[in-house]
Design a protein that fits this description.
The complex is a heterodimer of chains A (about 525) and B (about 475). By secondary structure, chain A is mainly alpha-helical. Chain A is about 75% helix and about 5% strand. Chain A is globular. Chain B is built from 20 helices and four strands. The longest helix of chain B is centred in the middle third of the chain and has 32 residues. Classes of the chains: A mainly alpha (about 525), B mainly alpha (about 475). Chain A: Pfam families: Proton_antipo_M.
């Protein structure tokens, strides 16, 4: 359809062009706000339509990078503008371009102050997110990866809730701390290879001792982004204080950047490091899954509850990646996509009642099904998908991760299954407390059901949840060849005797621990 | 050969002659001439820049080896001349408003720039000292230029006393070096040290080098010789602070690089750990001490301490790539500082200058464009890509890692996270806090021009980084092969 065009650059930078036009808008405040909304929606919808070319034009049988673009940028340092997508990244580009118009639509009435700046920030954010998933050069990747902090910092800090300043600083400094360490790893890779080209680095065999350090530096960055326990504490704050659309994009796309980094860099490029640190990842993931689920049970604030559930769900994802099995990694990727849609939808659900009642306290609600049947139905679908009901997208991801986990160890599978049960408990309880029961609270008597604009926001997400749950192959076929190749490379590159010293110590103590539990 | 010498020093000669002529011009047209003299100074600086870039005998030694012109000198001189010109332009409105409009101000600024040019081209400990003192003498006076206010005179006095102390240390170091090496010439020192073939140079020479480094560290305001910086930055008239933070800093860093890489290049084992330490300590101290500042000029002082630390990371590497990183860093730093000080100069409420960080509150609403540019400088200073400041840090840390200074790189990036805290706090004050009284409008056109150009340069640097990188590479290479 668009063959010959640099489609990835178009999708990446079109939102920025839109942002520039919004910047130029002048006039009366209401006119500016209206025009800014319209331009932002138009730009993001056109970007989404353009990005559909990736869905239709992607060669699903191939594990190579596709739609590749390359141009010299700083040649004497081996840095090039290199873009491309494979089966791991292509769907995340689509997820980003899909969620942006939904976010803009959902903030149509919720954002009333400084609309112009808000829309500019969102479009800039879209450019950075899409660019990050397309980048095939470490420096380009890093620029997008860290650049995301600027618009997100402003979105939380300007349009957020009462503790927005604290939350935005915490978000900014935590993630910055992680990423600067990754920058050093990138520099170390540069001196190993004399290029920052990602495909070159992916097939290079790094010495095992260097791998350990590189792995840790990447881990520092990705663990904060995922976020893994115990560096997850910025997430509940950021989620609670961010405006609805900010939470949506945070849960939908930004949380995926860490896990994406693990799959893209840590596993294929640093196989020895990954094998060595797998017990660490497992341990942190279990703690995340079980601890976050328990904390979620105790929440009184809807957004906080969903934020903690995100931490738990991302624990599944990290376990899935480090099972280093075909099913585990595909499951992790699928779970990331599914969580991107489901948790976005759940945050939008919270946003709907928040816009009406200006409260996120669970105890303020109850019996909403009587006044808001459309809302109750939509919320139920997404709640069940989050729980992992068969037929929804959540099930496929969790199922595949479990299959992978069983191959790694039955204990791994057992422990994360506990998290699934807890997940069902807190989501169903949340739903019961908000939707069912008698409509007793007097101020809820006149609450309105979903408007058509809101239905338009939810409809595509609902369709996707069901589509992914009923016919997952249409998504899995994107990933399978790439994941297969990745694992083959990982196996081949694994230097056979495990690194001595501390590695043995950790692994043997890990074995003793699992045996004691057996 | 005298003719050749004059050609090599043509830009300096032009500046010196124009300075004297402008002095005469000012004296004979007393009172009304400040604006004219200021613009003439800008013109002289621009002419000198063109001469530096196109001078016929571009490289070589002059005046019996006291003075050297090479690609390194060209790069640093252009940077110094342009930042002096920008500082001059930015000060125009201020000096007229604040009863500082005496024609001596631009002329002194020109003379201190001449001193900087001589420093950069110094090829001998004596010409180094003469250049440094010419620069400093003029700076003492302009720091105290608002002689009717206590803060300004105090700043001038403080700068004078402490700077004289550092000059004394430098001079003492130089005399030790002369005593033990038997020469003050850089070329002679280089030959002597290289001739040792890896053997340890005599202790006296090392002690002399340490004193020399201490004196230079003072001039660049690196830890632990930074103490004067916050007070002088705060007390000096704002355009003088802006000038202090740009041109003399670049010149001193340039001189630092020339001295250590040129004559003492073979003694890298002896000075690398010292630079390692002052670089790390400046980054850490600058970042931590800035957190509690409430005055924006003091904040910029601590920021400059930290930034010198980052630039010195490149010097600590002691490689061509490190030196090139240092030059790139300084070039970008000058642009960020020019912009930031343009904002600080625009901070007036009902005609009065304000300097509190809290005076920026709500600027995002009251003056969106000024706030947006300031946010760009702050994110750039914090080193967030894709802004130019990121590339500055990227290239110095790259050099550090390649030179095996892993811990310096790790500590440096950690300090940069702490530093990010106070830079983004300014963004927070402008955008998240409730608006207070806005600044006077409109912003003077000179300041608005500096604001816009530097914001765009930082924002769009990533599109066209090659000219600067290539220039810095050539400059650095000149010092290693020349």
């Amino acid at each position: 359809m668009f063959s010959g065009l640099p489609i990835l650059s178009l999708v990446t930078f079109l939102p920025l062009v839109g942002a520039f036009f919004i910047f130029l808008i002048r006039g009366e405040p209401e006119v500016v706000a209206r025009n800014a909304r319209n331009v932002a929606l138009l730009t993001s919808v056109v970007t989404f339509l353009l990005s559909l070319e990736l869905w239709f034009g992607f060669d699903r049988g191939s594990a190579d990078f596709q739609f590749v673009e390359k141009a010299d940028w700083i040649p004497q340092f081996g840095i090039a503008y290199h873009m491309g997508v494979d089966g791991i990244s292509v769907l995340f580009v689509l997820l980003s371009t899909l969620l942006t118009p939904i976010c803009i639509l959902s903030s149509w009435e919720a954002i009333t102050v400084r609309v112009k700046e808000y829309m500019i920030a969102f479009l800039a954010l879209e450019t950075l997110m899409v660019g990050m998933f397309c980048a095939l050069d470490f420096v380009v990747f890093y620029m997008f990866f860290e650049g995301v902090l600027i618009p997100m910092f402003l979105i939380i800090g300007i349009w957020g809730g009462p503790r927005r300043v604290y939350a935005s600083f915490k978000f900014f400094l935590y993630t910055l701390l992680g990423s600067v360490l990754m920058l050093l790893a990138i520099l170390a890779i540069y001196f190993e290879l004399h290029t920052t080209d990602i495909p070159t680095a992916l097939v290079h065999q790094f010495a095992p001792s260097l791998q350990t350090w590189l792995w840790l530096a990447f881990f520092a960055s990705f663990a904060v982004k995922v976020p893994m326990w115990p560096v997850h504490t910025w997430l509940p704050d950021a989620h609670v204080e961010a405006p609805t659309a900010g939470s949506v994009i945070l849960a939908g796309v930004l949380l995926k950047m860490g896990a994406y980094g693990f799959i893209r860099f840590s596993v294929p490029m640093l196989p020895d490091g990954s094998a060595f640190f797998t017990p660490l990842i497992y341990t942190l993931s279990f703690i995340a899954v079980i601890y976050a689920s328990l904390v979620a049970l105790a929440q009184e604030d809807m957004k906080k509850l969903i934020a903690y559930s995100s931490v738990a769900h991302m624990g599944f994802v990290t376990v899935g990646i480090f099972t280093l099995t075909q099913q585990g990694i595909e499951g992790a990727l699928f779970q990331m996509l599914s969580h991107g849609i489901v948790s976005s939808a759940l945050f939008l659900c919270v946003g709907v009642v928040y816009d009406r009642m200006h409260s996120r306290e669970i105890a303020r609600y109850g019996g909403l099904v009587h006044r808001m049947p459309r809302y109750a139905a939509a919320f139920m679908l997404f709640m069940l998908a989050s729980v992992g009901l068969p037929g929804t997208s959540g099930f496929i991801g969790e199922f595949l991760v479990m299959v992978g986990a069983f191959q790694a160890s039955s204990w791994v599978a057992f422990l994360i299954a506990t998290g699934m049960i807890l997940g069902a408990a807190y989501m169903l309880w949340l739903y019961r407390r908000i939707i069912f029961g008698k409509l007793e609270k007097p101020d809820l008597q006149s609450i309105l059901d979903l408007s058509w604009r809101e239905v338009a926001v939810f409809a595509p997400l609902a369709v996707l949840v069901l589509w992914m749950g009923i016919y997952p192959v249409s998504f899995l076929e994107f990933m399978s060849p790439t994941v297969e190749k990745l694992l083959a490379q990982h196996q081949a590159a694994l230097s056979s005797p495990p690194a001595p010293g501390m590695a043995d110590m950790i692994q043997s103590s890990w074995k003793t621990l699992t045996m004691a539990l057996d | 050969m005298m003719n050749q010498s004059l050609l090599l020093a043509l830009p300096e000669i032009v500046i010196a002659a124009s300075g004297l002529l402008l002095l005469m011009f000012g004296v004979f047209r007393r009172g009304v001439s400040t604006r004219a003299v200021s613009w003439l100074v800008v013109a002289v600086l621009i002419v000198a820049t063109i001469l530096v870039l196109t001078a016929p005998g571009q490289t070589g030694h002059a005046f019996g080896g006291l003075f050297v012109t090479d690609r390194y000198a060209v790069f640093v001189k252009v940077l110094v001349l342009l930042s002096a010109a920008v500082a001059m332009i930015m000060s125009l409105g201020y000096i007229e408003r604040e009863q500082m409009a005496q024609f001596e101000f631009p002329v002194l600024l020109l003379f201190s720039t001449l001193g900087m040019m001589l420093m950069i081209s110094a090829n001998d400990l004596i010409s180094l000292y003469v250049g440094l003192e010419l620069q400093s003498l003029a700076l003492y006076v302009i720091a105290a230029f608002r002689r009717d206010t206590i803060r300004s005179t105090e700043a001038g006095l403080k700068y004078f006393v402490l700077s004289a102390l550092s000059s004394a240390m430098l001079l003492y170091g130089s005399s030790l070096i002369y005593g033990f090496a038997g020469t003050t010439k850089f070329d002679g020192l280089a030959t002597l040290l290289a001739g040792l073939g890896g053997a340890q140079p005599s202790l006296g020479l090392i002690v002399g080098l340490v004193f020399l480094i201490a004196g230079l560290a003072f001039k660049v305001s690196a830890f632990p010789f930074h103490m004067w910086t916050p007070d002088v930055y705060e007390g000096a008239p704002t355009p003088v602070t802006a000038f202090f933070s740009m041109a003399p800093k670049v010149a001193a860093i340039g001189l630092f690089g020339r001295v250590l890489i040129g004559p003492f290049g073979s003694a890298i084992g002896d000075w690398q750990q010292i630079i390692w330490f002052i670089s790390f300590a400046s980054m850490a101290f600058g970042a931590v001490a800035a957190i509690n500042q409430r005055n924006i000029k003091r904040l910029m002082a601590y920021s400059s301490i930290a930034n010198v630390g980052y630039a010195l990371v490149g010097l600590a590497a002691g490689t061509p790539e490190g030196l090139s990183g240092m030059l790139i860093y300084m070039a970008i730093y000058v642009v960020m500082n020019a912009g930031a000080f343009a904002v600080i100069l625009a901070m007036r409420q009902q005609g009065r200058m304000v300097e509190g960080l809290s005076d920026l509150a709500g600027l995002g609403k009251t003056q969106p464009l000024v706030a947006a540019s300031f946010a760009i400088y702050m994110f750039s200073l914090a080193g967030i890509p894709p802004l130019a400041g990121f590339f500055g840090k990227f290239f110095v840390f790259r050099a550090a890692i390649n030179a095996g200074l892993y811990w310096l790189a790790v500590l440096g990036v950690l300090a940069s996270v702490v530093g990010a805290f106070y830079y983004i706090r300014i963004v927070k004050i402008m955008y998240f806090d409730e608006p207070r009284e806005g600044f006077d409008k409109p912003v003077e056109w000179e300041l608005a021009g500096v604001l816009t150009v530097s914001a765009l340069a930082l924002l769009l640097f990533f599109l066209l980084p090659l000219p600067l990188l290539a220039g810095a590479d050539t400059a650095a290479a000149a010092l290693f092969h020349g």
